[in-house]
Specification:
CATH class of one domain: Mainly Alpha
CATH topology of one domain: Growth Hormone, Chain: A
Strand content: under 5%
CATH superfamily of one domain: MFS general substrate transporter like domains
Order of helices and strands: HHHHHHHHEEHHHHHHHHHH
Oligomer: single chain
Largest sheet: 2 strands, antiparallel
Number of strands: 2
Length: about 525
């Protein structure tokens, strides 16, 4: 019996990690009001959560080699619980970022790689296959019911209850952890690669931070100076963004060089670069990166669209996502059954084709007069992601020898969370760019403004534009004393610009989907069963 309690423990841990982000996505409007912040602020919190997980994923796996997988897993659960409790009591965006994005993100990173390792070591043969299937099913169910549970709690109670319930589950997981076998004592504990860990965290953090700052400071030339205290950082008129990207890339190059030297010298490092040469591994984790980027960005964009354009509550938003969630769940199961007849690369390729088709349909139906039911075509997109999800992890792990599975899982998890972080950061930036371009076109068409005045208005717009609801615009216009008859024209103009912003985001996701489709032709052509 205790052996199956292990599976229940790991399944509960997987469930709370998966549900966590989906709750945030459907609660965006409530979070903006309760924490007195903006869409950009919540976007940053969601992206930073995934970034912290990505940055610490390999570290979580390596710490298990030193301290033991059970101990690190339990430490991760405790850290996750502390972060969840802080998030539930947040009174400001910064408190949410510290509790949820940082502390809870670190806890998740310590848990996730060790869930896979404990599962692998606890079961063999058919039991192991069954256990992996249960964990995958729990993850799919979490993704499907997360928006509904989060929407219900946010609408009828408060989003804080989602985190409070997670705290209770954390306590239950800690009690059940007694069923997990104790870590074997090791005579030769490997040393921890501190230099590699620092370079990894710095490299990925700076790149994602650069993407988040791009919409404010400009991606190449500075829209406004980046101030560090009293010092303005914009060398040669450049934005801070290319500076951060350059430092981030240099850190990653240094990381790869360091790890290659450690591997050549036979010393343990954060990861083994030679692993990337395994046939199918690099294309596999790259395809996983794209899949997670478009899914995370979609789950950020669509709730925002429902709540800003259609004034949906969090509950209505969760219900509107049911077609997508069910299609993902059903096709993930269907894809697993198809693996006995078709090679993994063909199933993944079909998934990307459906995902791109679904995004094209959604992009075509987003318009100012659209009805919510017009966007039920998310079912096609969800079906595509379900097919991809059914194969990609198995393909990645089957690309390496059994003794390299844990390390490959860590790399896969890192790229997965990087996809989440960069997907959300980029789609938010693209939507703001689309909104700015549409509003700028309207300003250029206004009579009575000369070229100099137009430039001043557009420059101001680029620094302060935000995605907001009609109710927020109306409140602002009322406060400014704008006559009701003039408000309708302003609302109509902004609704058109907002539509263009969301369409820009969806077209960007379509481009990512096409890149994923191209990558699928590089995957190994073999069946996984």
């Amino acid at each position: 019996m205790s052996r199956w309690i292990v599976l229940i423990t790991l399944a509960l841990s997987t469930f709370i990690i998966v549900v966590d982000t989906t709750v945030m996505n459907v609660s965006i409007s409530a979070l903006i009001v309760d924490l007195d912040t903006t869409v950009g602020g919540i976007q940053a919190a969601i992206a930073l959560y995934a970034l912290v997980m990505a940055s610490f994923m390999l570290i979580g796996g390596k710490l298990a080699d030193i301290l033991g997988k059970k101990r690190v897993f339990m430490i991760g659960v405790c850290v996750f619980g502390v972060g969840t409790f802080l998030a539930s009591t947040s009174q400001s965006l910064w408190m949410l970022i510290i509790g949820w994005s940082v502390i809870e993100g670190i806890g998740s990173a310590l848990m996730m790689p060790n869930i896979q390792t404990i599962l692998r070591d606890s079961y063999d043969g058919a039991e192991r296959a069954f256990a992996y299937g249960i964990i995958s099913a729990v993850a799919a169910v979490g993704a499907a019911v997360g928006p509904i549970v989060g929407g219900f709690l946010t609408t009828y109670y408060t989003w804080r209850w989602a985190f409070r319930i997670e705290v209770l589950i954390v306590i239950l997981v800690l009690i059940l952890c007694r069923a997990i076998a104790a870590d074997a004592k090791r005579e030769d504990r490997p040393s921890f690669d501190f230099a590699g860990a620092i370079l990894s965290v710095c490299g990925w953090s700076l790149i994602v931070l650069a993407v988040l700052l791009g919409q404010t400071y400009g991606f190449v030339m500075a829209r406004q100076p980046f101030m560090l205290g009293d010092v303005a950082i914009n060398p040669f008129g450049l934005s801070i963004v290319p500076v951060l990207v350059a430092i981030g890339l240099a850190s990653l190059v240094a990381l790869f060089t360091l790890e290659r030297r450690r591997e050549s010298a036979g010393r343990p490092g954060l990861f083994r670069p030679s692993l990337l040469s395994a046939p199918g591994l690099l294309p596999g984790i790259s395809a996983r990166f794209i899949q997670m980027a478009i899914m995370a960005a979609f789950l950020f964009t669509m709730p925002l669209l429902f709540q800003l354009a259609f004034a949906f509550s969090a509950m209505e938003t969760g219900l509107a996502l049911i077609p997508f969630s069910l299609a993902l769940l059903v096709c993930a199961i269907l894809g697993a059954r198809l693996s006995s007849r078709y090679s993994a690369d063909r199933i993944i390729r079909a998934g990307f084709v459906l995902a791109v088709l679904g995004l094209l349909i959604i992009g075509g139906t987003i318009r100012p007069d659209a009805e919510p039911e017009d966007l039920a075509t998310g079912v096609v997109f969800g079906a595509g992601l379900g097919l991809i999800a059914s194969q990609i992890l198995n393909l990645v792990l089957s690309s390496v020898a059994p003794e390299q599975t844990a390390e490959a899982s860590g790399l896969n998890g890192t790229f997965e969370q990087l996809g989440n972080a960069i997907g959300v950061a980029l789609v938010g930036t693209m939507m703001i760019a689309g909104l700015t371009a549409a509003l700028s076109s309207q300003i250029m068409a206004l009579p009575g403004l000369d070229a100099a005045q137009q430039s001043v208005v557009i420059a101001t717009l680029e620094q302060s534009v935000e995605l907001v609801s009609d109710a927020q615009i109306t409140a602002g216009l009322d406060a400014a004393g704008i006559a009701p008859e003039a408000q309708s024209d302003i609302l109509s103009g902004y609704a058109q610009a907002r539509t263009q912003a969301f369409r820009t985001g969806i077209w960007f996701l379509t481009l990512l989907g096409l890149i994923g489709l191209a990558l699928s032709f590089k995957l190994p052509k073999r069946k996984l069963v």
